[in-house]
Amino acid sequence: MRDILRIHELSVWTRIGIPETERVEEQQLQVTVELFTDTALTAKRDDLIGAIDYNEVAECIHRIAATERRTLERFAEDTAQTILKEFKPNKVTVTAQKFVLPETKGVSVTITRP
Q1: Using CA of residue 105, residue 68, residue 70, residue 5, what is the dihedral sign?
Q2: What is the C-alpha separation between 73 and 58, in angstroms, rounded?
Q3: For 103, left (φ over 0), alpha (ψ -120 to 50), or beta?
Q4: Cβ(29)–Cβ(97) under 8 Å?
Q5: Roughly what angle, to the nearest 10 degrees, separates helices 72-87 and 54-65?
Q6: How far is the C-alpha of 77 from the C-alpha of 16, rounded, in Å?
Q7: Comparing C-alpha atoms, which of 37, 12, 41, 39 is closest to residue 27?
Q8: pLDDT digits over 98-113, tens only?
Q9: Which helix (H) or strand (E) holds 8?
């Protein structure tokens, strides 16, 4: 499967971090997801029947972010598993980035799940 539906750097707000003090206030994450799926039928029909709606995927990620977590890895795993269950792509890659480490543009984790 070579087709990829990609959402680039979706901004979400969540409570995340190992120390409790880091979870006191929401912080921004940027999430990029790649859903590996066959888009041939969607392209042929030129409609969303049977397709993955990227707006629904984005809304799903916002719902996941509404729940507190301690690690970026857990957030990425929960996002990947939820997308696999709800949207049924062949596989998914999730990159979650947060902005808490000084002197960097951010810290991220990327996972791929079949």
Answers
A1: negative
A2: 19
A3: left
A4: yes
A5: 140
A6: 14
A7: 12
A8: 998 899 999 999 999 9
A9: strand 4-14
Instruction: Determine how β-strand 107-113 pairs with β-strand 4-14.
Output: unpaired
Which amino acid belongs to residue 13?
A: W
Q: Report the number of distinct structural domains present in the chain.
A: 1
- 61-76 pLDDT tens trace: 999 999 999 999 999 9
Do residues 34 and 92 make contact, with C-beta atoms less than 8 angstroms apart?
A: yes
The CATH number of whichever domain residue 30 belongs to comes to: 3.30.1130.10
14 forms beta bridges with: 27
Domain extent at residue 47: 4-113
List the structure tokens of 89.
């792509």
Tokens of 56: 């629904």
